Amino acid sequence: MLENLRLQHQTAAETEGLVEQLVDVYLDAHADDGPRYTAERYEQQLAAHMPREGWELVTARADEDLVGYVYGFPLGSDTRWWDGIHEPVPDGFTDEDGQRTYAVCELLVRRSWQRRGIARALHDRILSTRREERATLLVRPDNVAAQQAYDSWGWQPAGWLRPTREGAPLFEVRIKAIASSR
């Protein structure tokens, strides 16, 4: 990894002024992924996610340039995260209480900075502070590089989910135990 890389945790309040930069990294990371990856849709996603209790961002900067980030939040009892999950799943799999599952929503690195260990560093940093028993994320089935990375980082396939929003793609659900790894 790069010597001048700086990782920093930030709350939603501390992130307010960074939204434009977050969108820019998102668009860069997804430049070849099709028309659903738009600034407008992502701004709406951030606006919906940032107010959630426990929302947290970890940024990666090289000098002053934002080169990547990861964010997520704990799933509360009223979560819609599991809406659209394909059955069957084990009894209680989708039961949440705000302390059971941490959702990793985005893990993004600018294309020119990929394959340097930055995503792994961001992943490890955000999960290192979590106290939930498990983490979850969604990965597109055609994103082979991400699937291979998640496999090597200990994430387990746990089923399939198509979010209920219009035009949402099918995702593979991944789960990783975190509390027990301390």
From TrEMBL:
InterPro entries attached to this UniProt entry: Acyl_CoA_acyltransferase, GNAT_dom
Pfam families on file: Acetyltransf_1
Listed PROSITE patterns: GNAT (PS51186)
Domain N-acetyltransferase: 13-176
Protein name: Acetyltransferase (GNAT) family protein
Organism: Micromonospora tulbaghiae
Phylogenetic classification of the source organism: Bacteria, Bacillati, Actinomycetota, Actinomycetes, Micromonosporales
